[in-house]
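> forwarded from #structure-qc
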């Protein structure tokens, strides 16, 4: 999905991603869905806010270069500047995006792509729901101020 350099595009990206997730068999009420939507929101917001460039959102489901049972989210933009993980303090209103990605995704990173870069994260499916919810709660607690 192409995303314009406008903060309003983040909501459109979330709606598009939710329909892709449901279309792939991930139900809207699964904890995994909300985690993926949050990750997508953070990565698209970073691209829109910090680069001012259009971006491309991709959601891949355990095929090709993605391991079976894994959902991979990629956001590519034309800005070559690497992402910078900040560590927000107390009442800071910015600087938690990549901290959340680091806390919620099983893996994440970035790579040069064309004239710009691609930031990606992966979440493994198939984790029993109770264990998954405990993991999400633990990860969120680690990034809260």
């Amino acid at each position: 999905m192409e995303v314009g350099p406008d903060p309003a595009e983040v909501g459109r990206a979330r709606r598009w991603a939710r329909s892709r997730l449901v279309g792939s068999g991930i139900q809207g009420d699964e904890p995994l869905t909300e985690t993926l939507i949050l990750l997508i929101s953070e990565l698209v917001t970073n691209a829109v806010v910090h680069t001012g460039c259009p971006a491309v959102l991709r959601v891949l489901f355990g095929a090709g270069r993605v391991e079976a049972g894994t959902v991979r989210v990629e956001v590519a933009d034309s800005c070559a500047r690497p992402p910078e993980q900040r560590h927000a303090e107390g009442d800071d209103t910015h600087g938690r995006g990549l901290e959340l990605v680091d806390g919620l995704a099983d893996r994440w990173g970035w790579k040069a792509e064309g004239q710009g870069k691609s930031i990606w994260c992966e979440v493994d499916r198939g984790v029993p729901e109770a264990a998954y919810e405990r993991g999400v709660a633990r990860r969120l607690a680690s990034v809260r101020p």
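QC bot note: The first strand starts at residue 2 and ends at 3. The domain at 2-143 is CATH 3.30.565.10 (Heat Shock Protein 90).
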